[in-house]
Amino acid sequence: MMKQVQAMNLIRGRWHESASGKRFESLNPADTREVIGTAPWSGASDVDAAVRAAREAYPMWKAMSRVKRGELIDNLAQLIKRDLNALSELVTRECGKPINEGRADVVEALHMTQYVAGMARMPHGEIIDSEIAEKDAYILRKPKGVVACITPWNFPVAIPLWTILPSLLEGNTVVFKPSEDTPICGHALAELFVEAGFPPGVFNLVHGPGEDAGDPLVHHPEVDVVVFTGSYDVGRYIIQECAKLHKFAAVEMGGKNAVIVLDDANLDIALHAAILSAFKTSGQRCVSSNRIIIHEKLEPEFTPRFVELAQRINIGNGLREDTFMGPLINEQGVQKYLYHNQKAIEEGAEVLLPGGVLKEGEYQYGHFVAPFVYRMRHRADSFALKEEAFSPHVAIIPVSDIDEAIHVYNDTKYGLAMAVITEDYRKWRYVRDNCEFGVGYVNLPSIGAEVHLPFGGVKGSGNGHPSASALFDAVTHKVAFTVNHSTEIKMAQGLSAKIG
Known about the structure:
It is a single chain. By secondary structure, the protein is of the alpha/beta class. Helix content is about 35%, strand content about 25%. The protein folds into 2 domains: about 5-255 and about 460-480, 3-Layer(aba) Sandwich (Aldehyde Dehydrogenase, Chain A, domain 1); about 255-440, 3-Layer(aba) Sandwich (Aldehyde Dehydrogenase, Chain A, domain 2). The chain is built from 14 helices and 24 strands. The strands form 7 sheets. A 7-stranded mixed beta sheet has the order 15-16-17-14-13-19-20, with helices on both faces. The chain has a 5-stranded parallel beta sheet with strand order 10-9-8-11-12, with helices on both faces. The protein has a 3-stranded mixed beta sheet with strand order 1-5-4, with helices on one face. Helix 4 runs parallel beside helix 5. The longest helix is centred in the N-terminal third of the chain and has 21 residues, at about 100-120. It is globular.
């Protein structure tokens, strides 16, 4: 067992306990006997102190050269590179995903940091021709103020930096609330921000559950923007509350994603894309595919091969290099998995792999489950086929043609990720243009985002303000600025400048 970490809140450049003095534990989901560390159980007064610190630091940070802000972000990139192995192991120990995924999480964070640091020296405005020859017109970006970044546990290093770094580069200050399931990863990031030399109050960290720390952050009058990644229910609540308070929210929520396998698909590509989409991170990605929508001509050959591969998945502690699938994050995740499995059975699913909770041997102290795979025709009233399971729960859905495949894909409240497997460029273009999604792939899994691309969904998966590279738009105002170089005033649209 490694030494437990005593995480703290970071406010105005100093480490603080919560006002209440209460703390909560972070456990290893692969072995709940191991306490990774403890963190402050913060409340409204702690949030208020962090937001006030961010507000006080804002004028100084906004006035700093954008290039200088980028240099501080580059400092952070060097520290992440230095600590890459230690951070990767921490991610795996605290959130359970295999070490190759823990490493990928940190590498993605590094890539985001490098990308944003590079953006500091790139243009971030436009010069536009005016209707009047003697005028120059510009579009400028201005920061919005204090940004609250509320992030999930499944990418505890990468997703925070997707949201925090664009906010900081543009001159905003930040209050970061990490998931209560991965507070130690959040604390490790905060230590690197301090070491990188960010001025006090520019980056602040508050730990705690959503009800006690997240909700006061959303409602705080000095928070200008809320950036949230998480569940549909919480994201929808945040949008509604921010609308009441006339503040901006950018939310990325869940998905009921799918791999669409068309009748001309390369089955080897289809099988591996489906396995990766369904079972990487134990199905606990917002882009994981709970549905394999497959042409009925290929389904009889595809299904037994998919089931056979799923049976061979190596489930275990993520610190072992040969582990493909680690545990679910907590007992609530296990109960949700069991509930979705039972709903599929009640709705008439043909169960191909029964799944279940693993409790023998090395599994007895963790939240381990096996893949649950079933075959089922699409039903408009199905719970199992329409609601996000966030677990290794997978439906194989036969369809008769490409139009039925598109209809089945779209027939949920979500619209986040999809992949289509086909050798015909006309077919993938048709799917691209008619499926409702934010992140799409051809002959690939439904996972694998890159930081320089927008990441987000439509419908119940988001409100049209993606994170990663596209977050710059959410945390800035675009303002118009026009300069007259003439000695007289000339107005656009033929308006007269004469009075009387």
